[in-house]
Structures are given as structure tokens and as C-alpha cells.
């Protein structure tokens, strides 16, 4: 298997640098254990990370024996039930080198805590909590996704491969109410009004949608644990343990026993126990921003404690990472989100980064327009912060290129735009975002964005494999060069289009040149003033070495892209 951690990077670096059956497929383990670990370490920064986002249930089924739990057997709308993906499946793909080949250095997967047991009858079809955002119990994993031991193994395996783990967390709401899932006590949640999003109050003190109880995250009033939760813990034989841990948490912190602090304790337990590297935080703008500062404080405490307890497993001194989903936030907003009557700076409330909803529309402009805009903002208003760019996602009904007509250009935009990148599972294999279902049973709503990963097409369609190889080359180059995501952008030539990126932070220095929309055949790339004459460069896209002469490098191939780094 090729190792895409190739090429020589210009770095001067000093890195400190039941319910579920857990049997795995023995033949898969034998295959993946023979894959060598990545041998090359490169500097890491969340500002330029290459993040892979997947829905746990829709990525890879590593253990078919855990596919059905809690009698979740009701008929659902198309793509609205569990389909078998699990934690073991993610771990398998790490061991196979799938993420390494894509240059991925962080994996964000949808929530894996226990979901409501029942299903909801919606206009879009009967639905289970396959997506992970309908929590029943924050303290334990849902057996459909796997066990805590399997999650621990996932984190350890990812870390062995130089990949950090971002856990998706929900503080804003519980799961919907069903016949199997009673509403939480009225001291914990509100069930009305439904948000109208007109101003701050009608966005934060309301239910996001009908039948999605909203946690009183703005409250500091002490509440008792729900009787249903206590009974559940008792039946599972862990009541005393949970109560003792809560007692220690509240004694240490001095927090009141308000709903948000219970949940913060439960969420940060995964950091303290497993070494989770970061949180992707759901529905950020629907929660009083002060709660996020408190979550970050406790998560960083837990992360520091885990590092003290596991010094041999620590990557470096990178702090705990939090990226927020402030729905509708765009990089043009700089540090604030505008509620009409109030502006909030979420970067000042625990977040290193926010998801950027703007790139999908910016992608319609020229490369230079995009790259210059993002570089300018990230090195001024958002200096030392970042955005997480995406083109498609699990709940954006208007993605870039929904027909997958140009997956090559999508890769160029996402992988080369300054900021962190978020590959949504299947971007790299042109997984369909426009499935229709049947006339009698159409696929409705966001389910169309959430089909199972198209592994079979990758094996059977040459075009799909060609698309993946393009994403791999770009992803690997981004991974190996902090300058791409975290560096400063400068256009070197307009036609053909050539630009440079430069990263300089203490002991870590990096510089690269990229050419896009190049002519096929013979081509000349202007690098004068950036790479001096006589400099030997390596084009990682064509795996060709060239020497700068008269301020230019000459290439002769059929590629329309060049990725130039200093050769060894």
C-alpha cells in the first residue's frame, strides 16, 4: 500500500513534537494489523487541520451483531433508520490506512452516546436516532454504535496513526419524547415555545423544533436527577458509581447542580478517561454562550488530567480543541454572530474555531478571490483562531455541487483554501447527495445527505477511484504542509495561476507553491522571488523533480495541477 506521507517538507521543527456483542471480524483484523504505521511526523496545528467528518452509523459496519438494540425494529422512512455503521468500523478503516492516505489528521464522528429507544413519526418519515443527536443518556454509549472499550480502542488506534479524535457533543437538548422515552422533568427542560430565530431570546430560550425538549442551559438553579435516569442506572448496576462521581465533581468545582453542569460533567468524562482531543459542539447559538466557556474550562481540565495520567500517549502541548456549529456563521462575520438585537463573540467563549457556512457559496468565485479573502481574514480579525471549511455536510440542504459534477474542483477548493478543512464522508468518492428513493417511498429532508458510504462504487467504478486518488494527493500535501491551511497566501502569477503559501511560527517554517488550471503538456510556473534559481523542487502531484531556472520551473505532463515543495 502506498504511504502518502511522502515528499520532503521544508520544516525546521522541534515538536514536543445486552445489548452489544463486541466480536470483530477476524479476517479483517488479520489484514489491517499488517499495515505499517505512518513513519513521518509533521507539525500539527488546528488552524490547518484536515478533518474527516462521518456519521458513525453510515460509514462502515465493523460488527453486524450490534445492528439492532432496544427493539428498534419499526419500519422507518428511507434512510431514517439504523444501517449498521459503528465504532469498530471506523477503527478498521484507520488500520487499513484509509484516513492516512487522505492526509487526514483528525476524525470527527457523529455522537455515540445512548440515543432514545423509540422512533418519531415525522412528516419526513418514521425516524430513529441513528444520527446521534437525540440523547437519552449521556453517561453511556449506544450499543448500536459500540462500547466504551471499543471507543477507547478507536482513540488509541487513531493516536498511533497520528490522527486526533473530535467527539460530537450535544448540550442544548435531549432526544424527542416517544412512547419509550418520557420527557425529562420540567426543571430540566422546556417544551415550548418553538424558536422563531428573530432575536437572541427567540433563538436561545426555546425548542429548536417541535418535540425536542430544550435544556435550561441558561439556569444555575440546582435540580435533582430524573427518577427515570436513576432507575435506569440502578437496573444497569451503576447507580452508586454515577452518584459518587457526581459528588466528587460538584465538590471539586463548586458548581450548583444545574442541568448544564451535570451534562458538562458527563461529556468531559470521555476526555478524562479516553484522551479525546476535541469537541465539535452542536447547536451552539441555541445555548447561552456562558455555558460554552464552562464546558471548555472543564474539558481542558479533563484533557490536562488525562495527559498527566498518560504521559507516554501525549502528542504534544496542543490545548483541548473546541469547534462550534453556529448555524449560518460565515467567515465574513469575523469574530461575531449577529442575532439582530445582539452580537456574540463565540471565539471569546471557549471556541478555537467555528464551522464556516460560507465556503459553499464562495466556491462559485475564482480561486484567487477565495484564497486571498480567507488568508486576509484569518491573519487579521481571526488571528490565532480559525474556521472549519466545508462544501457538503449532514444537514446543509444546499451543498456545493450536489450533483457531484466536478469532484476534482471541489477537492481543489476545499483542500487548498486557508483554514481547517472538513471532508464530509463520501466527498472524496463522489457519494450521491441526490438519491430519490421510489415514487411511493421518496427520500425526504436531510436523509438524502446521509446515505451509507459508497464503498462498492470505489471498488467497481474506475472514475470513483480516480476521484479518490486526486483527493488523496491534495489531502496528503495539505497534511504535510502547515503552510496550506495555516500559512499566508500570495499570488505569484495570474496566467497560468500560481500561488505561494508561507508558514513561519518559531521553530516551524514551511513554504510551498501551487499551480492550478494549468495547461496540459508543457507548462511554465513562475516562482521568482519565492524560490531562487537552482532550487530543487518536488511536484508531489506528478512525483517529478524540477530545478528553478530563470525564475520558473518547467513541467511536461497531462496534469492541470502542480504541488511544489522543496526536494530533499
Output the keywords.
about 575 residues, alpha/beta, TIM Barrel, Immunoglobulin-like, 3 domains, eight-stranded parallel barrel, six-stranded antiparallel β-sheet, 16 helices, about 30% helix, Alpha_amylase
Write the layout of secondary structure elements.
Elements: H1 26-32, E1 50-54, H2 56-59, H3 87-95, H4 98-101, E2 106-109, E3 113-115, E4 135-141, H5 148-160, E5 164-169, E6 189-190, H6 201-204, E7 214-215, H7 227-235, H8 239-253, H9 259-274, E8 278-281, H10 289-309, E9 321-324, E10 337-338, E11 343-344, E12 353-356, H11 359-362, H12 367-378, E13 386-389, H13 407-416, E14 420-424, H14 455-460, H15 462-480, H16 482-486, E15 488-493, E16 497-505, E17 508-516, E18 521-526, E19 536-539, E20 544-547, E21 552-557, E22 562-566
Parallel strand pairs: 1-2, 1-14, 2-5, 5-8, 8-9, 9-12, 12-13, 13-14
Antiparallel strand pairs: 3-4, 6-7, 10-11, 15-16, 16-17, 17-22, 18-21, 19-20, 19-22
The assigned structural class equals: alpha/beta
Q: How do the strands line up in the largest sheet?
A: 1-2-5-8-9-12-13-14
Structurally, the number of domains stands at 3
Distance between the termini: 23 Å
Can you walk through the features of this model?
The chain has 568 residues and is an alpha/beta fold. The chain has 3 domains: 26-176 and 261-486, TIM Barrel (Alpha-Beta Barrel), CATH 3.20.20; 224-254, no CATH class; 491-566, Immunoglobulin-like (Sandwich). Helices cover 28% and strands 18% of the residues. The strands form 6 sheets. It has an 8-stranded parallel beta barrel. Helix 3 (87-95) runs parallel beside helix 5 (148-160), helix 9 (259-274) packs parallel to helix 10 (289-309) and helix 13 packs parallel to helix 15. The longest helix is centred in the middle third of the chain and has 21 residues, at 289-309. The two termini are 23 Å apart.
